[in-house]
Design brief:
Elements (H helix, E strand, L loop, with lengths): L6 E5 L11 E2 L14 E5 L2 E7 L14 H10 L4 E10 L9 E2 L3 E5 L24 H11 L6 E2 L3 E5 L7 H9 L4 E3 L2 H10 L3 E10 L15 H25 L19
Parallel strand pairs: 1-4, 1-5, 5-11, 6-8, 7-9, 9-10
Antiparallel strand pairs: 2-3, 3-4, 5-10, 6-11
Length: 267
C-alpha cells in the first residue's frame, strides 16, 4: 500500500513526537537522501508527514541540508501543504524573544545552494513575488490569538548562509534593508515548495536579538545555548498552534501557490 500525506511539518527535535502512532516512508529521490526518513501519522482526520530539517540527530548544519531531496520526497507522498516552524533572531526591538512571526517575504543572502528543480532543457520561471501561502498565514493568525500567543502577522526574513551568526555590521545592514528577522534555512526551502505548487507556511519563533540591539548594552549577542533555551521554552506553544492549523487547512486550494506552474512547460 502506497503511503501518503496531504500536509507536512518540517521541523526540529521538539517535533519528533508529533504523532501517537507513525509509520516511516523510505524512498529514494533523484536528489539523494533527505535529511531523515519521513514519519507519517494523523492529526485529526488529516494525513500528516514529519521531516526533520537537520536530521534526527541534528547533524546537518543549514548550508548542507539536502533541500531538494527534502521537498521532493514530500511531493512524492502527495503533500500539498508544508508547515515550517523555525528558530529566528529578531532584527527589531518590537519583535521580542518568545514572539512569533508569520513571515510573508524573504531576502536571500545564501550562496551556492541548489535552489531549483528546473535545470532544463525545459525552462521554467515561477513568480516569487509572494513566496508564502496567504491562505495558511490567515489560518495561523486566527488560531494563534485564542492560544494567547504574541504573533506578528507579517515580516521579512533575511536568510544568511550560516552556520555562523552575523557580525554587528551585517546585522545593522540587514535591519537597514527592511529585515524583520534572520534565519539560515528559509532559502531555498520555501521557493522549492513553490516550484512544486506546494503551499508553504513559515512560523518563526523569536529566540534572540541577533547581535543585540544598538544602544542597549543589557541585550547581548546571540549564543547557541540561548537559542535552544528560548526555543525549548516555547516548543509546546508552537506544537499546539500547528495542531490547530492542520484541521483548518481547506481540502480544496484556491491560493496562488496551487497555480504557480500555470503557463509553464510543466502544466
Amino acid at each position: 500500500m502506497k503511503q501518503s500525506a496531504e500536509i507536512a511539518v518540517i521541523g526540529g527535535t521538539g517535533f519528533y513526537g508529533l504523532f501517537e502512532k507513525a509509520s516511516e516512508h523510505i524512498a529514494e529521490t533523484p536528489y539523494g537522501p533527505p535529511s531523515g526518513i519521513p514519519s507519517i501519522g494523523t492529526i485529526g482526520d488529516r494525513g500528516v508527514a514529519f521531516l526533520p530539517r537537520h536530521g534526527y540527530k541534528h547533524e546537518l548544519p543549514p548550508h548542507v541540508i539536502p533541500y531538494l531531496a527534502n521537498i521532493w520526497i514530500l511531493h512524492t507522498l502527495g503533500v500539498k501543504r508544508i508547515i515550517a516552524p523555525c528558530a529566528v533572531g529578531s532584527l527589531s526591538p518590537e519583535v521580542k524573544p518568545g514572539d512569533f512571526v508569520l513571515c510573508d517575504q524573504f531576502i536571500n543572502f545564501t550562496r551556492e545552494r541548489k535552489d531549483t528543480f528546473y535545470d532544463g532543457p525545459k525552462t521554467t520561471h515561477i513568480s516569487a513575488a509572494d513566496p508564502y501561502c496567504p491562505e495558511l498565514r490567515k489560518i495561523a493568525l486566527e488560531e494563534a490569538q485564542p492560544l494567547g500567543l504574541t504573533v506578528h502577522p507579517s515580516g521579512t526574513v533575511v536568510v544568511i548562509q550560516g552556520p555562523r551568526f552575523s557580525t554587528r555590521a551585517e546585522s545593522k545592514f540587514f535591519r537597514s534593508i527592511g529585515g524583520s528577522v534572520i534565519n539560515m534555512t528559509q532559502y531555498p526551502e520555501a521557493i522549492l515548495a513553490r516550484e512544486l505548487e506546494i503551499c508553504y507556511l513559515n512560523i518563526s519563533l523569536i529566540t534572540d536579538y541577533d547581535v543585540g540591539l544598538e544602544g542597549d548594552a543589557k541585550i547581548k549577542p546571540v549564543t547557541h545555548e540561548e537559542v535552544l533555551k528560548v526555543f525549548n521554552t516555547n516548543i509546546e506553544k508552537l506544537k499546539k498552534l500547528i495542531v490547530k492549523i492542520i484541521p483548518r487547512a481547506p481540502q480544496n486550494r484556491t491560493c496562488l501557490c496551487s497555480k504557480a506552474l500555470e503557463g509553464t512547460p510543466w502544466r
